[in-house]
Amino acid sequence: MTGSSCTIKLYWFDSGVFWCESGSGEFSNAVNITVQDKDDGIILESPVHPVTEGDPVTLSCRTKQQKLLSSVFFYHNNTLLQNDGREELKISAVSKSDEGFYRCEHSGQESPQSWMSVQAVSSPVSSLFLVLLIVGPVVGVLLIILLILLWRYRQSKGESFFF
Length: 163
Fold this sequence. Notes:
Layout: E1 16-18, E2 31-33, E3 42-45, E4 51-52, E5 57-63, E6 73-76, E7 79-82, E8 88-91, E9 100-106, E10 109-110, E11 114-116, E12 118-119, H1 124-156
Parallel strand pairs: 4-12
Antiparallel strand pairs: 1-2, 3-5, 5-8, 6-7, 6-9, 9-10, 9-11
C-alpha cells in the first residue's frame, strides 16, 4: 500500500476478495475481484465501495477495452431488471433493497456478477430522540433539585414558599 492506493498484479486464477494493509496495520475496505480469462469477455462497472442509501448509482457494461456497450440486459440477484436497449442502469436513489449481486448480459456474453453493498443512513430523528432521552431526565432531576434547594432556602428565612 502506497499512500491512498494499492496496486496488485492479478493472474487468471487470482479471483477473490482483496484488501490492502498499511505498515501501521490499517486496512482498506475489502473488494471482490473476479478475473476473466477470456479476451472477449464483458465487465460490469459498478461501485467498489458501499454506497449510501439515497445516493444515485449508475451501472454499465463494458468490454475489456473499456468500450461502453448498448442493448444490455441488467440483472439483480438473477432477476432481469432492464432490457430496453439502454447503455446504463441508473438508480436515482438506492435503498437497502438494491443491495445484492448484479451482472450484465450482451449478445449472449455474460459478465461475472458483482456485489453492491448499500449502507443505511442514520436518521436525524432517531439521533435527536436519543439526545432527548438522555438530556430530558437529567434536566428534570436538576430542576427538582433546584426547587428543593429554593424551598429549603425560603424555609430557613421563615418565608412561605407560596407567594
